[in-house]
Amino acid sequence: MKKSKGKDTKTNAMRILDKNKIAYKEHLYECDGFMDGVSIAQKLGQPTERVFKTLVAEGKSKQYYVYMLPVAEELNLKAAAAAVGEKSVEMIHVKDINAITGYIRGGCSPIGMKKQFKTVADSSAKNFDEIIFSGGRLGAQIEMNPNELADLINMDFADIIKQPTFAICKGRLSYFLFFEHIRKLSYRYGKIFDSVKHVFFVMIV
Fold first, then answer.
1. Cα Rg for the chain, rounded, in angstroms?
2. Choosing a second label site near 79 at 20 to 30 A (CA), which of 40, 86, 125, 188?
3. Phi-psi category of 195—alpha, beta or left, where left has phi over 0 and alpha has psi -120 to 50?
4. What is the dihedral of CA 112, 117, 121, 125, to 10 degrees?
């Protein structure tokens, strides 16, 4: 993967990658203000499972932690706390993002914060050769290998997203929701779910 050569678009996160001679790709897009992660994924033409958002939480110990997870998913606070050895964690307030990380909402990168906080990425990141995440400012994303990112910032992997629950009911919508969940899980656990989907389809036809 080639590095971007646009010096005028470099962010602190990108300069850190350059300094460490780590390959990445820079994605730039028009952005007048905050844009949610799902919209960014759509703008880049990427599946939401491969585009990650960066969240910051505070533990019971008053220590801060950084979590990376697919943009369409929600953080499981109990699992997030367990992943860092805390009794509990709570999301920091939006107004405190800049003071704690040095970044702003919508441009918070796991690389180059004021302090390198303990970081945990959802384990689904390991299913991709490259993931995409904030480049450190609005309108900029970085694409790189998740294992190289882990080595750079001493990041761990764990299952930290909320899993949906399903009620048993009839109707096409229920089947659609079931298959959508299977599709997301396939990124997480591999192609074994293709077989599950096939068997389920045979059962309902």
1. 18
2. 40
3. alpha
4. 30
The model's pLDDT over 145-202, given as tens digits with 9 standing for 90+, comes to 999 999 999 999 999 999 876 555 555 555 555 555 656 655 555 544 544 444 444 4
Q: Which residues contact 138 (CB under 8 A, 6 or more apart)?
A: 31, 33, 34, 35, 104, 106, 107
The model's pLDDT over 69-119, given as tens digits with 9 standing for 90+, comes to: 999 999 999 999 999 999 999 999 999 999 999 999 999 999 999 999 999
Tokens of 86: 């805390």
- Beta strands 140-144; 25-28: pairing state: antiparallel
Q: Which two tokens stand for residue 57?
A: 């939480």
Instruction: Answer whether 49's CB lies under 8 Å from 124's CB.
Output: yes
* φ, ψ for residue 45, nearest 5 deg: 70, 35
User: What is the residue type of 84?
Assistant: V
